[in-house]
Design a protein that fits this description.
Two copies of one chain form a homodimer.
Chain A lengths: L2 E6 L3 E7 L8 E3 L2 E7 L1 H11 L3 E9 H13 L3 E7 L4 E7 L4 E5 L7 H15 L4 E5 L10 H11 L4 E4 L2 H7 L6 E2 L3 H8 L4 H10 L4 E5 L5 E5 L2 E6 L8 H18 L3 H16 L9 H10 L1 E4 L3
Helix pairs in contact in A: 1-8, 3-4, 4-5, 6-7, 8-9, 9-10
Chain lengths: 306, 306
């Protein structure tokens, strides 16, 4: 079976504290603590694994938090090729009660030039066994801003197509390596190109190097601007839930379609369905497979004119 | 030099998140994360070490959090004789801004009967090298409620005097082993004996097995009801700060006085001074040694009549 390598340079341990209620400015007893390996690339890998795909996770992990997140990956049965660093991996804390949630994101570790070079060498070895590569999420301090361009070029040279899902400078610099698929959301699209109009923005990203662009537009589904045509895919109904997971669902389905070489319309239906199935699961990187199967039958796909 | 063994059955990793402000129900970026080994016995050990004493820390620690707290102990140069357990040690999280603090305490691990027996065996070996033992803090689920009685009897049999600082059933059961010093605060005293009046309550604890009782009464200093007499020790002025650390300062000074066999009035002056010096340090188990030295000269000691 084909292997998909996902890269998470800023991997995290996602911790959830559940309480009935929180007395801010006071002392509280946490009812349950849940830990989960996190970061966009890891969430994508978990979704791919749920779909029966072979995955390998790389990126950087360090300290006690790095060890804890690797232990969680192992529990999830995901092959871990994370590269150790001296710094302490970050933790994201969600404090959740019945009617509210507060998120506290720790700062990530700072990566040394030596650690980055070591990661690069390791990555090129891993890519040799990979059929596609997902480069997902933000870059920690110390990793060069053109990291996704450097990794993308190496993957391209070694024959592995790249899906890129990031924002800001990491995105604009990453386009230099001509990733096969780039998946921005609306905000990332506008901020990277300066164009408010989606098709103008996707065209700009393609001019800058992206072969194909799939924009995730929340309720309005996906807009795909590809070498084979342009489509809009819209889910049958709106689902409320974990919006963070929506983009990871799109990326997981798109990379699966890429290794299968399935036609673009099929990929977009799959991506819309998996995104919806991820939104309604509170845990990042999880999907309701019943919703996924049902939505696959009900997504509306239409061509759009550029 | 004499060795003091402190026991923390419910050791913790104390984590502090510092932020400028917190938007509850929203996403926040944590500015700095500080980790510190915690739990009352560990705080007492850190204070003793700061006073130049030889200490050894035991108790239970497990999982990634247990590993992280052991790493912090090692950084602090404290000899770690914690016994590994399968469960995950608890974390206490303080979310601190310039003008407020919210505390979130994780539930502790559940200890198996086998782990408790293993700890007991380990404890009896450690006590052979100890000149005094501090039993401090709450008991995690699974550890028998009479644990401090069982450990206290073993210590007594092996010739090591015991200082006990706990509350509720762990305290009342622990008295059975005749600890040499028991240090309740006002609330623990009332709740363990039913007496609102401090001297009536300390007398009741002594009838139940405590050889000497030192009650920490916040602003009003200490009241000691001992085999050699009864005293009140009052600090020269009120200090505002970390009240949690105040009791650990008292315990550290009392056990140091116990191994030195210094006269009770001297022990009480030391305990009042170290308690004050701990209150003004935000980090538990730390003391301002200048305040300590200054307060030692200024504590007021008076005999009281029973």
């Amino acid at each position: 079976m084909q292997v998909i390598l996902t890269v998470t340079m800023n991997a995290a341990l996602d911790v959830t504290y559940e309480l009935d209620s929180v007395n801010w400015k006071s002392v509280n007893r946490v009812r349950t603590v849940r830990n989960c390996a996190g970061g966009k690339g890891i969430n994508v890998a978990r979704l791919l694994k749920a779909l029966g795909r072979r995955v390998m996770v790389s990126g950087l992990a360090g300290g006690a938090t790095g060890a804890a997140l690797r232990a969680e990956l192992s529990k999830d049965g995901i092959a871990d090729a994370l590269v150790p660093i001296a710094g302490e991996s970050r933790r994201t804390l969600a404090i959740v009660t019945t009617d509210e949630a507060t998120l506290l994101n720790e700062p990530g570790p700072t990566v040394s030039a030596r650690e980055w070079r070591h990661f690069y060498d390791h990555f090129t070895t891993l890519v040799e066994d990979a059929d596609a590569v997902v480069l997902s999420g933000s870059l920690p301090p110390g990793v060069p801003l053109d990291a996704y361009a450097v990794l993308g070029k190496a993957a391209r040279r070694l024959g592995a197509p790249v899906v890129l899902d990031t924002s800001g400078r990491a995105l604009t610099e990453g386009l230099i390596a001509h990733p096969v698929v780039v998946k921005p959301n609306k905000e990332e699209l506008v901020s990277a190109t300066g164009f408010e109009e989606t098709l103008a923005a996707t065209a700009a990203l393609r001019r800058s190097g992206a072969e194909n662009v799939v924009a995730s537009l929340g309720d309005q589904g996906l807009l795909a601007d590809t070498t084979e045509g342009c489509w809009r895919a819209v889910p049958p109904r709106r689902l409320v839930g974990n919006a963070t997971g929506a983009g990871d669902g799109v990326v997981a389905a798109l990379v699966a379609g890429l290794v299968d070489e399935s036609p673009w319309p099929r990929r977009l239906v799959e991506a819309t369905a998996l995104s919806a199935a991820s939104v309604i699961e509170p845990k990042a990187g999880s999907a309701d497979l019943d919703v996924y199967r049902q939505f696959r039958e009900e997504v509306t796909l239409e061509s759009c004119s550029r």
